[in-house]
Design goal:
By secondary structure, the protein is mainly beta. The chain folds into 5 domains: 125 residues, Immunoglobulin-like; 99 residues, Immunoglobulin-like, CATH 2.60.40; 92 residues, Carboxypeptidase-like, regulatory domain (Immunoglobulin-like); 126 residues, Immunoglobulins (Immunoglobulin-like); 112 residues, Immunoglobulin-like. Helices cover 4% and strands 47% of the residues. The chain is built from 3 helices and 44 strands. The strands form 10 sheets. Strands 21, 22, 23, 24, 25, 26, 27 and 28 form an 8-stranded mixed beta sheet that branches. The longest helix is centred in the C-terminal third of the chain and has 14 residues. The protein is globular. 40% of the residues are buried.
Length: 573
């Protein structure tokens, strides 16, 4: 029996892979006014059954003053978060052995006071097995990690999730449960994903199943609820140490600075671990590193919700320890602006609900295909959101350099997004504004952008109906309904392009549409179109193609201010 005792152990809380946003099947009611303290209620289900021992995290977006709420479910999977102020909230759910049922949509679901949500989860996968030494004796108390390298759709899993470690028991058996579907590699030894505990195998280089370095590790596919047995034949191979120090212009608001290290495979980060440095500046150290290429960076939170991040450094380890690495944490970019409301005098719009500033979200989604040379290559900080204060002003923080798409969400169906703009460099605000909805926004490291103006206008219309086939044929799957402007002078206005997935019965619905002439078209979504935002700045060719196809279909309609156009029939070829 091969055993190396635990030298030091600290108890730490680790989020399981299931502790992220779960799929919601209930959309918020856009006409429900929320001005007083209230509740958000809902249920947590898996295959239609209540999920036991689930916990809901209720977090108000871009609010660093309101405490995060943690709400348990009852035996029926029901929960209620009480005493909430008006605003926009994000719901996350965690349950032992379960993972969230992700939809793959880039559109995050937000909730308001008075909403009810059904969050769905599914059973996580399991990888278990034994770790045996050269003499086939069990290896006891060695760390084992299951690292997801690709998701269930084959895409690289570089979302920054840190997989928890599991120690083998006295039989050399390990069991990692609650795994998200995807492709995994499994390793034993090394310092683990979180560098607080100290273990007798920390100085060894990780050995991957079946008995390999990372380059030739076996890849294990895990489906929802599936269990697989993966044994590892362990051999002691000396690893190397990487150490250094982080410096920063301002003091952290917590006593620890986080340092992250990601192993690179073909230029992609697929194994990630972390260490810490005390704010006194005594430095950090990673142990048990195999030869290879790594990405190293540091980050910490400062005052007022600001996060500082160092430039990422590529480190190559080859046969020796590396010491004296210096990382300098720097502020990320911020974007500030205001909402402007333009009311309508149209008779159908009278007494319609006015949108609340507290329930408006400005989001910035980083486009990985267009970036500046100084882009941080870290698998996090892909975007940000901000809500407005009582005067309509907002500020989005912690944005790394790169090209961003700007989007807006609000909750009044008879208003619409008219424009997203900022002053042009060297011109006054009154003279010229850039159309950020069409061009996007380029941010530099540490840049503070101000003067954004998000204009919402009253008069938004709704449009709903059904998709039908000729001669009553069955509807094909993955039907997307698109709305494009029919007026030629509006062809470049990205705010007049809409897309939505038709339900299984062919029904579809749109809201917040500007008055005007439109064409509608139904398409069977290709894989490329499935993940393409029709309003993205880099989708200009896609919009032009849609408009040409819609013009040939001649499914034209007109919307007037605050009109509810229902029962529209669209044909799919």
């Amino acid at each position: 029996m091969k055993t190396r005792g635990l030298i030091l152990s600290l108890v730490v809380a680790v989020l399981t892979p299931g502790a992220i946003h779960a799929q919601s099947t209930t959309k918020p009611n856009p006409e429900t006014a929320t001005t007083k303290l209230g509740s958000i209620t809902g249920r947590i289900l898996s295959d239609g059954q209540a999920v036991p021992n689930a916990s809901i995290t209720v977090n108000r977006i871009s609010d660093t003053t309101t405490a995060v709420r943690y709400v348990p479910t009852n035996d029926n999977g029901e929960f209620e978060a009480k005493g909430l102020d008006a605003g926009i909230y994000r719901l996350s759910v965690a349950a032992p052995g379960y993972v969230s049922a992700l939809t793959g949509s880039e559109q995050e679901m937000y909730y308001r006071v008075g909403d009810s949500a059904t969050l769905t989860m599914r059973k996580g996968g399991v990888i278990t097995g034994r770790v045996l030494g050269a003499d086939d004796e069990p290896v006891v108390a060695v760390r084992v990690r299951a690292i997801r390298i690709r998701d269930e759709n084959g895409k690289s899993a570089i979302t920054g999730e840190v997989n928890p470690d599991r120690l083998t028991d006295d039989r050399g058996i390990y069991r990692v449960f609650g795994l998200r579907p995807g492709v995994y590699v499994v390793s034993a030894g090394g310092s683990g994903s979180i560098g607080f505990d100290v273990n007798g195998f920390d100085h060894d280089a990780p050995i991957y199943a079946p008995s390999s370095p990372r380059d030739t590790a076996a890849e294990i596919s895990i489906a929802s609820g599936e269990e697989k047995t993966v044994d590892i034949h362990y051999r002691s191979e000396a690893g190397h140490a990487l150490s250094g120090r982080v410096s920063a212009p301002t003091s952290p608001n917590a006593p620890w600075i986080s340092i992250y290290l990601a192993r690179l495979m073909n230029g992609t980060a697929d194994v990630r671990m972390s260490a810490s440095q005390n704010s006194s500046g005594k430095g950090f150290e990673f142990l048990g590193l195999a030869d290879g290429d790594y990405l190293l960076w540091a980050q910490y939170s400062a005052a007022a919700g600001e996060t500082l991040v160092s430039d990422a450094r590529r480190i190559t380890i080859k046969g020796a320890d590396i010491a004296g690495i210096e990382l300098v944490a720097k502020p990320l970019a911020t974007v500030a602006g205001e909402f402007v409301l333009v009311p309508s005098n149209a008779e159908p719009c009278q007494e319609k609900r006015r949108p609340s500033f507290a329930e408006m979200v400005v989001g910035l989604r980083r486009n990985p295909r267009t970036s500046t040379k100084d882009v941080l290559e870290v698998p996090s900080y892909g975007g940000g959101q901000a809500t407005a204060d009582n005067s309509g002003k907002f500020i989005a923080r912690n944005l790394r350099p790169g090209q961003y798409d700007v989007y807006v969400q609000f909750f009044s169906r008879h208003w619409y997004l008219q424009s997203i703009a900022r002053p042009e460099t060297g011109r006054s605000k009154e003279i010229q504004m850039n159309d950020l909805a069409r061009t996007g926004l380029m941010l530099k490291s540490g840049e503070a952008v101000s003067g954004l103006r998000v204009t919402l206008a009253e008069g938004g219309a709704t449009f709903s109906g059904n998709v039908q086939t000729r001669e009553s044929q069955p509807l094909p799957p993955r039907l997307n309904v698109y709305i494009v402007p029919a007026d030629k002078d509006k062809s470049d206005d990205v705010m007049r392009y809409f897309s939505n997935r038709a339900d299984a019965d062919g029904s579809f619905a749109f809201e917040q549409i500007p008055p005007g002439h439109y064409w509608a078209i139904v398409k069977i979504a290709t894989d490329d179109e499935e993940n393409k935002s029709v309003r993205s700045p880099d989708a200009a060719e896609f919009r032009a193609k849609l408009r040409r196809e819609a013009e040939l279909e001649k499914a034209e309609f007109e919307l007037t201010p605050c009109q509810n156009l229902t029962g529209h029939k669209l044909l799919v070829k």
